[in-house]
Design a protein that fits this description.
This protein is an alpha/beta fold and 539 residues long. It folds into two domains: 6-203, 3-Layer(aba) Sandwich (Rossmann fold); 234-523, pyruvate-formate lyase- activating enzyme. It is built from 18 helices and 17 strands.
Length: 539
């Protein structure tokens, strides 16, 4: 007998590998964990409607036995609506979560997919999984209308399936049994959903982006701090200063045009006054550290300075960093001086490459010389620097990748991170590679920016073996560069971070990258202690 669903209950689930998708890679040992901010905003929006919605979230990424917990959670909560947001490598986990939910709760459950992967490949979600509706843009207003039971054909910004011509060939018990035996999510889900008729998919008009009369995001409610137990998200001292920590978003979108990125170009911001009230709200809920995740916090330098100035006026001083980094050509000395006084202790920047042709091939619109100026400016204010670099860009060769390694050694940030340029489905780079016949695989869990697995054919013929070689070469040459070891060692003694850095080296450097021949250690590198896609707090 099916469980009766609670019409006002809305649940959100985070996939099990949300924080460990990069296990076995250079950045694995120092991955941060944190509540999922998009769910906090969706929950806050539903509560703002004052229609009696009850929300809860299961973060499978921080549970010890996530798949065993899932079934009990669903049967206890009995939601009418279930939201699943995921990135490309997590699609198969999201698919299995949906199948388990549909089997336990029945066809009346409304399963909603969101996020950049589902937005780009909504046809996949609606034909290959048990998803009912995909939100293709910004989620708050759209998801709110779905949960109010508004007819799908009257809701902007979705794609939905009219028919119910799908069935799953595995029930919840069978899925969990196979996973318990060690089967991969990819193998379990393969062919597990079939259609007995031609699917009828309907796409509605795109929904305009959220903005008030002043084209700002100030109409958004503050994130729902009751959705998660924030004290579950404890990070080791090598990656966090404050506990608990909270992601903070003060703008959405990005006006720049990097072809490897999926950021929307509709750049909108929260006003400085709103941001200060948000900070006060988070502090009142016990938050001890902010992790700014804006795609580009300093797109509008004047606004960035206004926020820093308002923090000083309000007496707000809390550890914070700019997790997604800033553009090297947008850094401003006046901002840095004020930011340092408010508690900003780490800034990442996307330098990407030391080769101008490589930079141009990803449409970065950045001159290499700007990176040198940016690095010197940040160091001047004693703020930790994180350098983001990229190899296997469309124009890269072995020579240009070595040039990037040498450039990173020249800049010498406190911490450096390199990623492989992967064409994700929601990017213009993917569209270009697919048009040229360069996409070799659509096995989504292989789309990993820290592994060269061969999901595409590189335009210049770089093989996965060669790319992987330069990936590790970057870390070895950067972190075991004698100049860096000497500089970082002295700096750690001066600023009191030497214990943390020794701990970091013990957990990350020696275990993973020390060569078999100790005589060669001086040319070897340690992996960057940063979480995939974001700079990290390392004290």
């Amino acid at each position: 007998m099916r469980l009766a669903l609670d019409e006002k209950k809305v649940c959100f689930i985070t996939c099990p590998s949300a924080f460990n998708a990069y296990t076995g890679t250079a950045i694995n040992a120092a991955t941060q964990v944190y509540p999922y901010l998009p769910y906090q905003y969706l929950s806050a929006w539903l509560k703002k409607l004052n229609l009696g919605f009850k929300t809860s979230a299961l973060d499978m990424g921080v549970e010890h036995n996530p798949w065993q917990i899932l079934g009990n959670y669903l049967k206890r909560e009995r939601p009418k609506y279930l939201g699943l947001s995921f990135t490309t490598p997590l699609y198969y986990e999201a698919k299995l979560i949906g199948m388990i939910a549909k089997d336990l709760l029945g066809p009346e459950l409304v399963l909603v997919h969101g996020g950049v992967h589902a937005s780009a490949l909504w046809n996949e979600s609606l034909t290959d999984s048990m998803c009912d509706v995909v939100v293709t843009g910004e989620g708050e207003v759209t998801f709110g209308e779905i949960c109010q039971g508004k007819p799908f054909n009257e809701i902007q910004g979705i794609v939905y399936r009219e028919d119910r011509g799908r069935k799953q060939l595995l029930n919840a018990e069978e899925i969990l049994s196979l996973l318990h035996k060690g089967e991969s999510c990819y193998d379990v889900q393969l062919g597990a959903v079939v259609s007995d008729q031609e699917p009828s998919l309907k796409k509605t008009f795109n929904r305009p982006f959220i903005k008030d009369a002043k084209k700002s995001l100030d109409d958004l409610p503050f994130p729902d701090m009751e959705l998660y137990d924030i004290y579950k998200y404890k990070n080791p001292t090598i990656v966090a200063k404050g506990y608990p920590m909270q992601q903070v978003e003060t703008s959405r979108g990005c006006p720049f045009t990097c072809n490897f990125c999926s950021a929307e170009d509709a750049y909108r911001v929260m006003s400085p006054g709103y941001v200060i009230e948000l900070y006060k709200f988070l502090i009142s809920h016990g938050i001890k550290e902010f992790r700014i995740i804006d795609d580009q916090f300093l797109t509008n330098v004047k606004r960035g300075k206004a926020i820093a100035s308002a923090m000083l006026d309000a007496g707000i001083k809390v550890p914070w960093n700019m997790a997604n980094g800033v553009r090297a050509d947008r850094v401003d000395e006046e901002f840095l001086e004020m930011a340092a006084r408010t508690g900003c202790y780490q800034i990442g920047a996307g330098y990407e490459s030391g080769d101008q042709k490589a930079l141009d091939s990803i449409q970065k619109s950045l001159d290499v010389d700007k990176s040198v100026t940016c690095m010197a400016m940040i160091k001047k204010y004693n703020i930790e620097t994180v350098g983001f670099f990229m190899i296997a860009t469309p124009a890269d060769t072995e020579e240009s990748m070595q040039k990037t390694i040498n450039f990173a050694k020249k800049l010498m940030p406190d911490f450096a991170k390199v990623t492989v340029c992967i064409p994700f489905p929601d990017t213009r780079l993917y569209a270009d590679y697919e048009r040229k016949g360069l996409i070799l695989s659509k096995k989504w869990d292989d789309y990993n920016i820290h592994k060269a697995i061969g999901v595409y054919k590189h335009p210049n013929g770089l093989t996965p073996k060669v790319i992987d070689k330069y990936y590790w070469k970057f870390y070895r040459e950067f972190y075991f560069n004698p100049r860096y070891v000497w500089w970082k060692g002295l700096k750690s003694l001066r600023d009191g971070t030497w214990i943390r850095n020794l701990n970091l080296g013990r957990k990350v450097f020696l275990a993973k990258l020390m060569p078999d021949d100790p005589k060669k250690w001086i040319t070897k590198a340690s992996p960057n202690p940063l979480e995939a896609g974001t700079p990290q707090i390392l004290k």
